[in-house]
Amino acid sequence: MVRLVSFDGDVEERVRFIEDTPRSEIVERTVARLADGEDPRAFVTAAALAVSRSSELPADHHGGPVHPIAGIHAICSMHDRLEGDDRLLPVLQCVALANKHVHLPSMGPTAMVAFDDLNRDVDADRVLARLEKALFDHEPRLAERAVTLACEKAAPGRIIESMLTQSLKRNTLDDHYFLYSSYACRALDAIGWQYGPILLRPAVRYLARHHSFSAFGEFTQDSIDEGIALYHRFPELEAMIETYGLTEDRIPLKTGPGETDAIAALADEIGVVDEIQSLPETIARAMGRGLSLEGTLEGISIGGARVFLRSHTNNPFDVHIHTGTSIRRYLLGFPEISFRHKVLALLGWPWTYEVRYLDHTLSWSWQSDAGDLSTKSDKALLGEIEEGILSIDGFDVTKLEVGINELVAPDEVRHVTRLAESYIKAGYDADALFRLTSRLVCREDASEMHGYKLQQAAYEQYHACREPFRWVHAVAAVKQAAVNAPTKPHQFYPRIAAELKLAA
Predict the structure, then answer these.
(1) How far is CA 186 from CA 35, 94, 156, 158, in A?
(2) What does the domain layout of the chain look like in residue ranges?
């Protein structure tokens, strides 16, 4: 007899609440329960479980559990960083998005079957070998069974290592192979690894399947052909390990003060690039000179943020430079992940589709002349930044007349970006700026948490990178908020604002 996945006690009740509540009532009823004293994080957990067990993966990467799960780490972190009722904004958006996906006919409702016939008399090595083979053979159901057992038998780092055997290579076809499976693990860090099988079963099913690339509206035939060509060129990245002597005995993991000049040099090379996919050799050469893995990532992070600031993109989904570097920093922290995979993750960053396609957008400068910076007070600049973002007339993603990758940001976006540069270079409180941008992107729900993910990634990278280079991450957060926050339609925020008595 088939048995469906269920949870104990209050967890099941909250998951069913998110699955069963009508879309027209989910915001109001969740606010009421939070007002009665229920834990906001418990609702984030319930949202993650509901969207994983009761919504299906769509043909492309927009829908189902992909982005809601990838955003859980950001949701929890933004809840912790924001203040007062603002802390509830990301939580309510998370719950509303999960509910929406469960109720949309293209994604749900569906059901997750419990595996009651697993042979648990196997060790971790054998289970992980099964997982890797299932991913390689494109056997999604076998991958689900294997990862369920792996969550019982193996440490998180070993599970990630097994997923990387395929996600790193398929990153060139679609970065969500790499990002979804990796960020699902950060989601589990936030809500608890006891829910590993629930969140990772859809993730490995996604990783094991063949994509229908024609379902991706933003992918041109040229970009598809390019991604497939780079997929077949993956051995070139592997060859760079030998060519540049990238071995564990030569390349340290940890960075230190003595690497500042080398990090600056790598960031400089990346920041002025014209063809992003040419960068793997630049990165390999820097490591070959002895730059640590952390130092290499810092150079990529700073240089990548400069590339983002050079981009005139008005695409609210363009967050992958930051989310890609942030997740790579996360992976460097696992001793169970092999040195080889850590190196390949760094070398493969420029071949990520939603990074490399920005070549045609690099028409802005990434910093101002010193004489152009404002000398106003911190409060005045924060006020101007907020007012500037809220005054931008956003577009509706459902009514575009051109491809979303072709949208060019208006001058107002560049203006608030320059105000942010003035603010940060004056030495004002960066965390206050991040709280502002995090609050503002919680107005938007059309991009499925893309803005939330960049805000958290930029915040993390700002605090991980060294002075005097890290300012670009805070400014990038403002630029992205200026693109993201005005984007329409706003389905949930007006209702959230009314319930919390915030300014709409």
Answers:
(1) 28, 16, 10, 14
(2) 9-103, 124-214, 235-361, 370-491
